[in-house]
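The freezer alarm interrupted the setup, so I double-checked each line after restarting. Inputs confirmed:
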Amino acid sequence: EADIYQTPRYLVIGTGKKITLECSQTMGHDKMYWYQQDPGMELHLIHYSYGVNSTEKGDLSSESTVSRIRTEHFPLTLESARPSHTSQYLCASSEWPSGQGKNTEAFFGQGTRLTVV
Amino acid sequence: KNQVEQSPQSLIILEGKNCTLQCNYTVSPFSNLRWYKQDTGRGPVSLTIMTFSENTKSNGRYTATLDADTKQSSLHITASQLSDSASYICVVSDRGSTLGRLYFGRGTQLTVWP
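Predicted 3D structure, all chains:
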């Protein structure tokens, strides 16, 4: 079982509220990711980080922000939630490949199902 | 454009039967291909991971194959169980960027009936 945790698992919140989705991993991985997934659809990368103090935007435009103050922690924040933010959010982590062609496993958290009403 | 296409979109089989899921990709330059199992409302869990030099890999009743020339992969599930009901996602990683970008298929939704 992967040592990557997301909280909360489920969240129902009103429009305009500020929320933070937590993601923590205990594997010492430098690379961390946030994905957004709608039912029956593929995962879309919204944020990623190479390590402490590194944050980058992904492929899918998102109004959320992230921070990476500690290696193990990669929280995602929505300053003002809207119904369009209703989705499942998945956090993942992986280590840097140690050599040419080396496989690196990506471990996923259980996800946070966010509903904005 | 880097893409991952999976078929069928959904599949229903009876418990104990075998099935094969397909994945075609256009990701280049190719690094590795992974198959994940995702239960409803949960995060994906890795089943297999293969580089271009590997053409088959097994994990219990799951066997993945890879043809890097035709850019096709399959996941074969043997003697299906009710607990195999889930979405199976094909994920391809490129080596053209430092990130090792992951490209996700939409998944095949497998339902196993008793």
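Quick read of the result. The interface with chain A takes residues 4, 31-32, 34, 36, 41-46, 49, 51-53, 89, 91, 95, 98-102, 104-107, 109 of chain B (CB under 8 Å).
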